[in-house]
Write a structure and sequence with these properties.
Low-confidence stretches: none
Number of helices: 3
Helix content: 25-40%
Order of helices and strands: HHEEEEH
Distance between the termini: 18 Å
Strand order of the largest sheet: 1-2-3-4
Shape: elongated
Structural class: alpha+beta
Radius of gyration: 15 Å
Number of strands: 4
Oligomer: single chain
Strand content: 15-25%
C-alpha cells in the first residue's frame, strides 16, 4: 500500500492527502500502524486479525486495491481451490474497522 501511495495513489480512508508523496507515505504509515493487522493466508490474500472476531472475510490486498475473496476462511478455501457453484449467493460483508472502508 505504501508503494501505491509513494506513486501518487491515495484512498479517502487514509484522510486528507498531504501535499507531497513523502508526506503522504508518512501519514499512510501512521494510519496503517493503527489499523487491525492482516494475517497472511495465501499469496496476497489476508484475513484481519483480532480476538473473538470469527467470520471475517478473506481480503485480496494488492496495494490500495482491496476486494473480498471469501465470506470467511472456509469459504475462501472453497472458492480458491475447488469448483464453486457460480450461482451461489455472494455478498460478503467486511466487519473490521478500516479495512471494510476500502470495500464500500
Amino acid at each position: 500500500m505504501l508503494a501505491d501511495v509513494a506513486h501518487g495513489r491515495w484512498h479517502p480512508v487514509l484522510g486528507a492527502r498531504p501535499a507531497t508523496n513523502d508526506e503522504a507515505v508518512e501519514v499512510s504509515r501512521a494510519v496503517l500502524a493503527q489499523a487491525p493487522q492482516l494475517v497472511p493466508v495465501y499469496a496476497h490474500r489476508f484475513i484481519p486479525a483480532g480476538r473473538h472476531t470469527p467470520g471475517h472475510p478473506v481480503l485480496s490486498v494488492w496495494g490500495t486495491d482491496i476486494i473480498c475473496y471469501g465470506h470467511d476462511l472456509a469459504d475462501y478455501i472453497d472458492r480458491e481451490f475447488s469448483v464453486v457453484d457460480e450461482d451461489a449467493p455472494w455478498a460478503p460483508q467486511a466487519s473490521v474497522p478500516f479495512w471494510k472502508d476500502f470495500l464500500g
